[in-house]
Design brief:
The chain is globular, with a radius of gyration of 24 Å. The chain is 29% helix and 21% strand. Strand 12 and strand 13 form a beta hairpin. It starts with 6 loop residues before the first helix and ends in a 12-residue tail after the last helix. By secondary structure, it is of the alpha+beta class. Bound molecules: zinc ion.
Length: 421
């Protein structure tokens, strides 16, 4: 299939969506976490109506679903396409003023609002984008290409397919979700109502990214107890819980930390310590691609507490561990055709797939365990969650072409019985 150019539509949508303030907020208990996410959801709903999509629904939790009907009669798996409307609370997401750089020549790009420069010397991946149309921030906000590029790609693809009913594809379900950046995007996702057999999130980075493995993640709280006494008169009576906490931390292996691990290695991350002389809590994030390994990390935390207890007594502390999410690879190994189809779609566009695991989590991880197998595809965005975020519109177009190709491949792929049909 020849490459289709949707650059104009993609750029217009990206600029429109990124200027809408949709930052989510982990401290909020409402759903969506911030009211401003409704502004984009309502706009997208209107745009979907104008496009002529069917079964459009926006529920009271901020989940916007719609259907692009099939152009063929043959039964093929219902394909879901997902993106999130919120942007990361890690950096300012208000008053985003995107800058468009046409035919990027490789020179430093001035971010006009802050005076900072986006430079290929600092971000060498820019060297691969010479000649592309780039969209950057003005330095005072993030861009929000994460994940408004995903929304722009999905709706541009849908618009194209609606205008070209001669292209064969099965039923496609579209889903835009809130609060992904604060880890709640899958929380109220109604998998049965969405009604897709499988899905892709359009929420990845540079060209070729195709992800179907995430970390296994646990959150651990280690509590050490002390005895508070006036420090001036504490000789032989005070037990400082902070000191005990430091001792505990030093008993853990020093090589299992974020700055000492990469690729497929896991870690135990000391995230936070809080408390008083009386009681101190250490919060650890446990991450590993292997289930046996994360279980081993859990064991290490318990065994370290046993050592402390042998020295200071049974009551000196405790360990509590909560499962956070699991590696979606465990589910997706049963749906490897999703990876195979995406790989073929990329290769037919001359794109080399890059199938590295995600050293983090995605909504797709939770959705996969909720019954909707969901790998992640590239959109072209880079440097997410900060003022140096940028995206290539040409890479967005490659992503759109991959999605169109995937939709077509679903009509010819030799699915075996039992494979999601
Ligand atoms: Zn994202």
């Amino acid at each position: 299939m020849a490459n289709i150019s949707l650059n104009k539509a993609l750029l217009a949508r990206l600029l429109r969506y990124t200027q809408i303030y949709t930052t989510s907020d982990a401290s909020s208990q409402t759903v969506p976490s911030t009211p401003q996410q409704w502004d984009l959801l309502h706009l997208l709903k209107e745009e979907m109506q104008a496009l002529g999509l069917s079964d459009i629904s926006l529920d009271d939790k901020g989940y916007l679903f719609a259907t692009l009907p099939a152009t063929i009669d043959k039964p093929v798996p219902v394909l879901g396409l997902l993106a999130h409307v919120d942007t990361a609370p890690a950096f300012n997401g208000k008053n985003v003023k995107p800058q468009v750089i046409e035919r990027y020549g490789g020179n430093d790009i001035l971010l006009a609002g802050s005076g900072d420069k986006l430079s290929a010397k600092v971000f060498p991946s820019l060297n691969k984008l010479i000649g592309h149309t780039l969209v950057t921030t003005d330095g005072t906000s993030l861009l929000g290409a994460d994940d408004k590029s995903g929304i722009a790609i999905i709706l541009s693809v849908v618009e194209y397919l609606l205008a070209h009913p001669e292209i064969p594809h099965g039923k496609i379900r579209i889903g835009f979700t809130p609060d992904e950046e604060i880890g709640r995007g899958a929380k109220h996702f109604d998998v049965a109502k969405f009604g897709a057999d499988v899905a892709y999130t359009l929420d990845g980075g540079p060209v070729g990214e195709l992800q179907y493995e995430t970390f296994n993640a646990d959150e651990a709280t280690v509590t050490l107890y002390g005895r508070s006494v006036h420090p001036g008169y504490a000789k032989d009576t005070m037990i400082n819980a902070w000191t005990r906490a430091c001792e505990y931390q030093h008993l853990l292996p020093p090589h299992l930390t974020p700055p000492t691990s990469e690729a497929r290695q896991g870690f135990i991350f000391l995230r936070n310590m809080e408390g008083s002389t009386d009681e101190c809590r250490i919060h650890y994030a446990l991450r590993s691609f292997e289930r046996a390994e994360i279980e081993n990390y859990q064991k290490m935390l318990f065994e370290t507490m046993e050592k402390m207890q042998q020295k200071y007594g049974e009551q000196c502390g405790k360990v509590e561990i909560k499962e956070h999410y699991r590696n979606m690879g465990e589910v997706l190994v049963h749906y490897l055709y999703l990876i195979d189809i995406a790989k073929q779609a990329m290769e037919s566009q001359g794109i080399t797939p890059n199938i590295d695991p995600i050293r983090g989590g995605t909504d797709g991880a939770r959705l996969s365990f909720m019954g909707l197998p969901t790998p992640n595809l590239f959109t072209g965005g880079e440097n997410f969650h900060g003022p140096f975020e940028f995206i290539s519109v040409d890479t967005m177009n490659q992503s759109a072409n991959v999605v169109i190709n995937i939709a077509q491949k679903f009509t010819t792929y030799p699915f075996h019985s039992g494979e999601s049909l």
